[in-house]
Predict the 3D structure of the following.
Amino acid sequence: MANEVKLPRLGQGMEAGTINKWLKSEGDTVVKGEPLFEIDTDKVTQEVESDFAGVLLKIVLPLGEAPVGQTIAWIGAAGEEIADAEPAVAASARESLQLVAEKTVPASASAPAEAPARNGGRIKASPLARRIARERGVDLRSLRGTGPDGRIVAEDVEAGQAAGPAPVAARSGEVESVPLTSIRKTIARRLTAAWQAPVFQLTVSADMTRANDLVARARELDPEVRVTVTDLLAKVCAHALMRHRDVNVQYTEDALLRFPTANVGIAVAAPQGLVVPVLRSVERLTLAELAAARGEVVGRARENRLTATDLEDGTFTISNLGMFGIEQFVAVINPPQAAILAVGATVNTPVVRDGAVEVRPVMSMTLTVDHRAVDGAEAADFLRTVKQFVEEPALAL
C-alpha cells in the first residue's frame, strides 16, 4: 500500500514550510533515509530524508507552502495506484504554483486581486498567512487575496502591512528589489519581539593577558584544532552559568525554564542572514572539543546546512564582533533566552597597576538581560564571575 509523505514538523512552533526543491522525480527509486526534498522553514533551509523506501509515485506539491502534516507526495511500489489527493492538498499545490509563477511575471501582467474569499463566514487564508497576520496584528478582513479563489497567502499579509502612500518612483537602474527570504522575515519578527522586552545592559572590561596566552598555547599544542577567543568565552560563560543558574533560563509567559546544562549559542553572520547555532552542554567539553564543535557547526551555518535541531534549546548567546574592530556594542537578546553577551575587540590600553601605568590587552563585554527573567544584582554577579574567569581562565578549565 502506498505511503503518504507529509510535511514534517522540524522544530517547536513550526506550523508551515515551503518546499524549494524536490531531490527526486516521479518514478525515481527512493531509499529510506535518503534526502527527498528541500524545505524552507521560518528558521532554516534543510534537506528532509525519506521515511519510506519504494518509488516516488506522485508529487502532490511540486513547490511552495504547505501546513505541517499535509500530504505532499506518495511513495509505494512501482505501478501502484494511489488515492486521489485531498481537495485541500490540490488547492495548496495550485496556490504554490501560482505564487511561483507570479514571481516570474511582471506586476502589470498579474491578474487583479480578488476580495478575500469566505467559507461559511470564515476568510480563506493559508496557515502561514494567518500566523503572520496574528503576530503583526493585521486584520485579514482588510486584505484582498491573490491565491486561488481569492485565498489570502503570506505575500498578501506582507503587502497589506506595508501598504501606505506610494513612494516616488526611482529612475531605472537605481533601486534593486531583493525579496525577503523566510529566514530574513523570521529575523525581523524575532528582533522586533526582542526589542519589546524590558532589558538592561551591564558592561565590564577584562584584562586578556592570560586568556590570549592560553589561546596561543592551545593552538601550539594542537594546530589542527584552531582554538579561538570565542571558544574560551563560551567555556567560561558555561561555567559561570552553572554557578549562576538563575541566568541559565528561558522566559515564557507562565514560567522560567531553568536548564541543568549550559547550551551556548554563537551568533554567526551567514549568507542567508544571522543565525545562532547552539553548542550543547558546553561546561562538559574540553577547550579542544569545544573548538572542534564550534568550527563544525559554524561551517555548516555558512554553507546553509543547519538543521532545526542546531538552533533549539539555547540558554545563552555570545555575539563577538571583535574581529571587525568593533570595541563595544549592545546585542539584542535572543528570545526566549534571558541574556546575551556582546564581545568587542581586544585593544592595547593604558591601565594602572600597583600605582604604575602599564599597557594591557583589554576587551569590553556588554551583557544584555531580559529584566522579566533576571534581576540586576544576579546579572551583575554573573558578569563579575565571567570577568574573573576570563582574566584567570584556569579557574574555568
Summary: The longest strand covers residues 339-353. DSSP finds eight helices and 20 strands in the chain. The first helix runs from residue 87 to 104. Confidence is low (pLDDT under 50) at residues 85-114, 165-170.
